[in-house]
From TrEMBL:
<dbReference type="GO" id="GO:0005524">
    <property type="term" value="F:ATP binding"/>
</dbReference>
<dbReference type="Pfam" id="PF00643">
    <property type="entry name" value="zf-B_box"/>
</dbReference>
<dbReference type="GO" id="GO:0012505">
    <property type="term" value="C:endomembrane system"/>
</dbReference>
<feature type="domain" description="Protein kinase">
    <location>
        <begin position="284"/>
        <end position="534"/>
    </location>
</feature>
<dbReference type="InterPro" id="IPR011009">
    <property type="entry name" value="Kinase-like_dom_sf"/>
</dbReference>
<keyword id="KW-0547">Nucleotide-binding</keyword>
<dbReference type="GO" id="GO:0050793">
    <property type="term" value="P:regulation of developmental process"/>
</dbReference>
<dbReference type="InterPro" id="IPR000315">
    <property type="entry name" value="Znf_B-box"/>
</dbReference>
<feature type="coiled-coil region">
    <location>
        <begin position="142"/>
        <end position="173"/>
    </location>
</feature>
<keyword id="KW-0829">Tyrosine-protein kinase</keyword>
<dbReference type="InterPro" id="IPR000719">
    <property type="entry name" value="Prot_kinase_dom"/>
</dbReference>
<feature type="domain" description="B box-type">
    <location>
        <begin position="54"/>
        <end position="97"/>
    </location>
</feature>
<keyword id="KW-0808">Transferase</keyword>
<dbReference type="Pfam" id="PF07714">
    <property type="entry name" value="PK_Tyr_Ser-Thr"/>
</dbReference>
<dbReference type="GO" id="GO:0048468">
    <property type="term" value="P:cell development"/>
</dbReference>
<keyword id="KW-0472">Membrane</keyword>
<keyword id="KW-0479">Metal-binding</keyword>
Amino acid sequence: MEGTVPCDYCLGGSTAAVKTCLTCLTSFCEEHLRPHKELALLRAHQLIEATRNVAEKLCPAHSRVLDFFCEREQRPLCHECSLSTEHRMHRHTALEEACRAKRVLVEARVRLVDNTSGLLQQETATLSEDHTNIVNLSERCSSQLSRAFEEARAKLSRREEEVMEELRNEAQRALSPIEVSMEEHVSGIARLSSVKDSLQALLASEVDPVSFLKMLKDQDLNENLQTGSAFRRSENIDNALRRIVERALASLNSVAEDRTISTPPSSTSDVTPALIPMVPQTSLTVQDLVKIGAFTDIHRGLYENRQVAIKIRKDGITNEQLLEEGRMMGALRHDRLLALLAMVSESPATLIMEFMSNGNLLAFLEKKSSSNRDRYYLKMAAEVAEGMRFLEEEGCVHLDLRAANILLDDGFGCKIAGFQLVRKLAGEVYQISEGDMLPARWCAVEAFTTKVWTSKCDSWSFGVLLFEIYTDGTLPYKGKTHREVVELLKQGIRLPRPSVCPDAVHRVMSSCWHEDPLTRPNFGEMYTSLSSLIRA
């Protein structure tokens, strides 16, 4: 099948043929050649050839005209061949009739091929158009996405610049009062140093120190502390100056007869921001886990060959929050407060504290040992009151005073811990914020109604702590939900009197739960009352 003539199936012979069937003498282009083969049109070639110039076609065996068509062998036969033994059992058809049937079949298949080819051309055109539309749509979408991305990036860049500018302004506003406060503190420290030098000069002089200090206290210093603009915002320095003068007066009065004046010893009640050592993590040896908390874990460990408690930050709080707790502990030094030894500022932030070998007060009470229970009740209550008196004098509130936050040293002496919520009062009250997780069973009723906390709220918590002590660590309002506890407090219902609680202790306990905070005792009064009961 080869040739260069036009395709017989293309209209007007517009396409050159690539193949020509030598049997049917039909020329095909590449597009129409495949249907010609697939529909097996070659099977009809013998018929076409047989009907073409029949007069010239004779049987080569008998020289007779080919009149029949053998359907089995698919070839024309003469009459003699059809009667032969070889072909007798085959089905024979008149040659003209077979040719007509084959031609009808060929024409039907040709029409089918033409129709199929037309449909294929239409589908090809449709697909080509769809492909073009898809390409155009993809280009438009890509262009729109690029523009949207550029606009979003420009907006983000502008917003980032705005936020950075706001942060810089906010930082400047926050730093301004700090700088002013620092200047005032520096001025106050200079004033404190001047007063110290004056006192030292007084001690070395021959002037009557008692008269001079009384005059200094009653006139100049007192006036300066109350009205002097340099000290109006420096409460710590004011209090420190007053205490220096008061301690000096007390010491001078005690030795006035023999005219001998000695420097008074420092008290643990002074709040002097201590220089807390910052040490690397490598200086610690972390040992077994003692307590798992929500935001910190406490381990036993070694620091400078000393057994210590190591408090390590977990997820939920920042390094700065834990370090701020450490700075508060470092500023509050007292025998009845847990002591901070050092801090680790690198992440995770860590506090190094003295180790309390006998655990917390709640675990001690739950042992219910008759050999040591009654012996320590009053002593422990008085020691806690002593530590809280110090916090009260320093203008601090604890907000979480309960038996679980009281630790016991080797001699079962009480030390107040749990400094996570300790706050320094800016005025008389602390405004409770949404993030403060306060223990409802130990909270004063006004903490739920007015959302403020004062030192008298700590007095309320101390009354609940006394209830814990005299009930061997029983949970306050046991069996009640926090919501039910709040409703009971608003209705004026208080905790019952423990069966083993003495009358005098119960009076202290009940006075802590007065509705009016002003009628509740302060910790100085409660410490005096409990100490007198111990001596009685």
